[in-house]
Write a structure and sequence with these properties.
Elements (H helix, E strand, L loop, with lengths): L1 H39 L5 H37 L2 H7 L4 H42 L12 E2 L6 E8 L2 E11 L2 E14 L6 E15 L2 E18 L18 H12 L6 H14 L2 H15 L4 H27 L10 H19 L1
Antiparallel strand pairs: 1-2, 2-3, 3-4, 4-5, 5-6
Amino acid sequence: MRIIRNYIIFEILAAFFVCIFIFVFVLIAGRFVGMADLIINKGVSIFDISRVLLLLIPYMLAISIPMAFLTGCIFIFGRMSSDNEISALLSSGISFSKIIIPVIYLSVLISFVCLYIHDRVVPSTRFKSRQIIKSIGLKEPTAFLEPGIFIKQFEPYVIYIGEIKKGIMHRVCIYQPERGKPTRTIFARRAETLPSDDDQSVRLKLYNGATDEPDPNDPNSFFKIMFDEYIITLHIPEDSYSGTIEKKPREMTIQEIKNQIKELEAKSINTAPLSTEIQWKMSLSFACIPFAIIALPIAVRIRRAEKSVAFGISLLIILIYYLIFLLSQMLAIEGKIEPYFLWFANIMFTAAGILFINYENYR
């Protein structure tokens, strides 16, 4: 059994590293195409773009690891099934469970490596890459308006933007914490910037939202006012131009995110995006385990050794996984479900894999 275990692990690792190279190369190529406009039309040096791409490799690596592990497992198990190696093992009294156990141990080890990259390596390299991008030419105040980050430059406000598409901000939350008083909140479904009279302020036009306004009879309480349009002017302190930028949640370690959650909760600010980010890092890192469990029974049923078939099956599984995963992430950020539901895709694929293995054992 030891020889068989080492053989399977070696074969899977060899395919795994090849798949990692392919996935990372494709991601880098796609990112480079997206940045080509900076080189061609805006005169940014290739050296700066190369630095950014190099710093993004750890993130691309962390994203690629689960996908590469799944593809490697399906390819190797498919080849072994096509060559009747799986049938020979089963005929000699070795069950599906015993075949898959060494692969599960390997998937756990790779998952911890992936988690380390997500938690320790990716935050620092992504933050450095954004600092380079920031220094390339973003000098106007609207550069501070970035999605997915709690923006603190516009004192006394704390701003969170869900996403920005074609210059339009969506799901904008503006918090105004005051010591000893409730936190005022302004929410808008979308927003856009308006021309400003100076270079140290930003005017936002908010659409379809609600704002907290002080109660004239009780200044310590608020009442909600719905609005179709609302204009707010945000001022930037001069020291905000010192070159420092706030970290996005993906640029923080898990401990840094936990610290910021405590800080924001003390100001009665919604921390669902930060809690979701912690579960995002952990659940995606451990996706290798359900992928390992589901790969064997699927590959055995297909019984094909072609690389194109393995890639096709892997991409289909990855697509289904990420659709469920991203839907859970979106609902968790909006506060409609708990962040722990990001583990749902992992649990579902693990359960499906166990059912398939049991079916093959008793078939």
